[in-house]
């Protein structure tokens, strides 16, 4: 897939024929060639001409006649050269050119024939003048009727719900795609990624997508602008990108009406002078607008609903045109007066609504799990919330990402790693790759763990760490009696804003009890009640232990992303049953979805993501000494020591010899 600038007109015509001959061809035609103000002519040139001009201006993404996209630049975009600016003028002002070009040609032809002193040429010139006048009158009538129709839609509040100016404001300030013809729907995702080169955010108009299957595929790869039925999809280069709120600019229709109103007298003065001269003939035409200056003078007086003193038309055409101009100026005045305050205020509110909805779709939540039962529990819980029954799979270089859709303003991605943190497929590298690749706003580790307080906890209860204690980093020293002492030097870190949101979510959480406290993380699969007892002795304040939290924390800290761990208790340090694991995973997934549903993970992410690092959150270095009997004691006035284990001989069970006093 590549961009071309040398397409022949034959290729452009074939591409236009393929797009307009699609199943949604009529809808596409109205999207790329809408009706103009007159309601008769199209406001844009034929599609083949648009494609030809876009290719020359560098606004066409092209692969073949059945795979291309037409792009529209923002209003503030300046074409790179003079030729491109001329092409843009031709593209944007097609309706005016269609109206005025024939008038100009007819006037020039009539003037040329008038210079030839023969009866036949003069008659032909007169016929051209009459034809020119007729076209001008028809144009004025159609523009007036179109302006009245547009004005009725503006001044009647009941019709405002059909107004798209809020969406048009976004289209006016970003690169947009009014036409997308990708016959092979499986290539739609690649096509959307190819649009990244045109801006941080590209807006795709659904009405311009030629195939139903392609439209469905594009919807899966994008996010809606505002509400689901806005008709515009957003292609973000970065998950953290936000669409700025556009300015509430004046209505384009008012500007067009004003321009037509001011320009018409200059164009029609010559025709009125000709009409008047044809009526008066050889007689005195002093009181008639029979010259260009007097006709222009009389036309401007019509704007004030009166005739200038001593000057009045005699021809039927001019007397018919006067009331037309009066109605036209009335349309403009009423439009400006009625809509200046009322419509502008309403439009501003609509833009704010679209902006709020657009932000609601802006965040991305990456959910990480380490087992199939945890993965299935998350998929099922999210499906019950948003009805997305079939997650879309994306295959990156090393991982599979499940796109679960949006829940209350957050786009949910799910990925599974192997257990632990040290193998190539384990959580450390998995989390780092996925955070780097998907740029999430929040990272949640959901799944199962084992509890350390069997009498106070139940199967399915949830553990959310206020601190995560890394037990994987230890130091072993030799005591004076030859025994060894083990020091735990792993980080003790705290989550950021998501800890607060988890606390807030418990207010109306109807599920299992949520425990907040210290959670241990160690790359050890535990199936030993004795080892669980030892962990309780090592960390008496800990609530439970798991295997992957350290990997998630480290990867999130590297990318400065907010993280949290939600684990359901599946056992007590001995082999958990399938039933208890399913209960714990379902409980953790349910609380995760509850967080999403209340909007805790939607909207803008935290302004300052937690900057967890080994340097900022590691436990303080403590100087200790080992006594003859293996006991560890602090020195230099320190009051806290790490727990150590003295090993009398290899293979013996560790016996605690030191105790943390903090």
Question: How would a crystallographer describe the biggest sheet?
Answer: 6 strands, mixed
Average pLDDT metric: 76
- Intertermini distance: 63 Å
Helix content: 40-55%
Question: Low-confidence stretches at least 5 residues in length (pLDDT < 50)?
Answer: 248-252, 606-662
Radius of gyration: 37 Å
How many DSSP-defined strands?
Answer: 22
Structural class: alpha+beta
Strand order of the largest sheet: 1-2-3-4-6-5
Give the number of helices: 20
The global form is: elongated
Q: Beta-strand level of the residues, as a percent range?
A: 15-25%
Topology:
Layout: H1 9-20, H2 25-32, H3 47-57, E1 60-64, E2 67-72, H4 82-92, H5 94-114, H6 119-155, H7 165-173, E3 175-182, H8 188-194, E4 201-205, H9 212-221, E5 223-224, E6 232-236, H10 252-280, H11 292-302, H12 316-339, H13 342-360, E7 363-369, H14 372-386, E8 392-395, E9 400-407, E10 410-416, H15 427-438, E11 442-451, E12 462-470, E13 474-478, E14 484-488, E15 492-493, H16 497-505, E16 514-521, H17 529-538, E17 542-546, H18 549-559, E18 562-571, H19 578-597, H20 614-617, E19 624-626, E20 632-634, E21 645-647, E22 655-656
Parallel strand pairs: 3-4, 7-10, 7-11, 11-18, 12-16, 16-17
Antiparallel strand pairs: 1-2, 2-3, 4-6, 5-6, 8-9, 9-10, 11-17, 12-15, 12-18, 13-14, 14-21, 19-20, 21-22
Helix pairs in contact: 1-3, 3-4, 5-6, 6-10, 6-12, 7-13, 10-11, 10-12, 14-19, 15-18
